[in-house]
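Postdoc handover notes: sequence design on the structure in folder B. Input tokens:
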């Protein structure tokens, strides 16, 4: 799913993945998110497996943007795809995206750890995330 894009250059994008139980397929669905560190905005996300193929879907949304650098943890998919001159691997450099993961868990019960809420479909999970991201980016005028 696409979020509205601003064409201004982005200094640093932080990347992370988080899991959520999706009952229909009886397995975990991973949400991969990209955050503009300085602009404090969600700039992209995808849902799927925790593999390089799923991260490539997110990368396709980001690669044509004017982004100076990427920060991520040490998950192998990041280093396989992101050019090394633009990539910094460090848990210490993902503080913004980890904070946003906390906000996701706060607003969406299905992301709470050890919770009883779950998604019944990947589509509803994506729609929930998109609505939340639009609201937190101040691009949607509804009350949450």
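Designed sequence:
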């Amino acid at each position: 799913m696409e979020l509205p894009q601003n064409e201004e250059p982005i200094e640093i994008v932080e990347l992370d993945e988080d899991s959520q139980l999706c009952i229909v397929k009886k397995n975990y669905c991973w949400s991969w998110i990209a955050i503009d560190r300085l602009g404090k905005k969600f700039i992209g996300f995808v849902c799927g497996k925790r593999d390089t193929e799923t991260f490539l879907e997110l990368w396709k949304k980001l690669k044509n943007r004017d982004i100076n650098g990427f920060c991520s943890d040490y998950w192998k998919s990041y280093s396989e795809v992101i050019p090394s001159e633009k990539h910094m691997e460090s848990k210490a450099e993902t503080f913004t995206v980890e904070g946003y993961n906390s906000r996701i868990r706060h607003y969406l019960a299905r992301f709470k750890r050890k919770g009883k809420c779950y998604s019944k479909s990947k589509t509803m999970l994506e729609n929930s995330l998109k609505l939340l991201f639009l609201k937190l980016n101040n691009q949607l005028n509804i009350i949450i």
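Context for whoever picks this up: The chain has one domain: 10-135. Don't rerun without checking with the PI first.
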